[in-house]
Amino acid sequence: MKKTESSSLSKKEKKKRAFDLAVDNIFWVIGCVLYALAINIFNVPNNIAQGGFSGLAIVINYLSKLPVGAVNLALNIPILILAWIFIGKKFVAKTLWVTVLLSAAIDITAVLVPYEYTGDKLLASIFSGALLGAGVAIVAARGATTGGTDVMSKLLRLVFPHMSYGKLVMLSDMVVIAVSAIVFRSIESALYAAIVIFVSSKVIDYILYGMGKSKMLMVITEKSEEISHAIISQSPRGVSIVPVTGAYTKEEKNMLVCVLRSNEVSSVIKLIKSIDPNTFTIITEANEIIGKGFKPTINE
């Protein structure tokens, strides 16, 4: 009887995992297609390299006419090999798959959607940023990344742990934009690329986290020590532990209270779920936070 129940549970788990994987892939394809359309319709015809490896691929395409998607994949392979060695196989496997999807989407849509917008470059930058941001957000919402400078920044942080992940990504993008300005012989191209990055970052934040700049997490769990240690060691944020008792069940648990910037929520939630998938998590807006790591106090 026990064996039957355990095998039944195993089948349910397998079905759930298969369903989740199918849904993940649907979202990843949609996100990659939006990203690809931004590149082929707006960025390539207007010589706008938006940063990241895909931006660098646009520069190489300008010089050599090699397909942007194929170049993007080729640039990612060495970085993903290093990530496989130093970060982890599971992270790399998912990132590699999404990178392949993105690279394929870029080259396929270049053929299937031959339209290129060559009008107002400011409009091209804004709409490109909106599509890129939507694509990245949809991919990120299902726990993946599009590779490129995201992966490289994780590797660089192993060497420069004092530098934040966001700063490393920004520096990587700035290098690509600087290279594009030299190759395209146009400062305007670099400025338009900066607009693309700004718009895309705002769209990503809006889709993933709403309009609020900061969030407060209240996490009820039986593994408070493990989760709090993981958050403290793997993110720049602290955690408060508050004892709580369920009014109905009378069970005693702990509630973790953590304040985050909006762009940190996704990674912290993923970290929490990896330790305890049965957590009860509440995410609320934090309109104003005064203190270390956020808004300085009056005396600071």
State the helix count.
10
Given the C-alpha coordinates, what overall shape results?
A: elongated
Mean pLDDT: 83
**Run of helices and strands:** HHHHHHHHEHEEHE
Largest sheet: 4 strands, antiparallel
Question: Please, could you describe this protein's structure?
Answer:
The chain has 300 residues and is of the alpha+beta class. The protein contains ten helices and four strands; from the N terminus they run ααααααααβαββαβ. It has helices spanning 2-43, 52-64, 68-86, 89-112, 121-141, 149-159, 165-184, 187-209, 224-234, 265-275; strands spanning 214-221, 240-245, 252-261, 280-285. Strands 2-3-1-4 form a four-stranded antiparallel sheet, with no helix packed on it. β2 and β3 form a beta hairpin. α7 packs antiparallel against α8 (187-209). The longest helix is centred in the N-terminal third of the chain and has 42 residues, at 2-43.
What are the key terms here?
65% helix; 300 residues; disordered C terminus; alpha+beta; 10 helices; 4-stranded antiparallel β-sheet; single chain; disordered N terminus
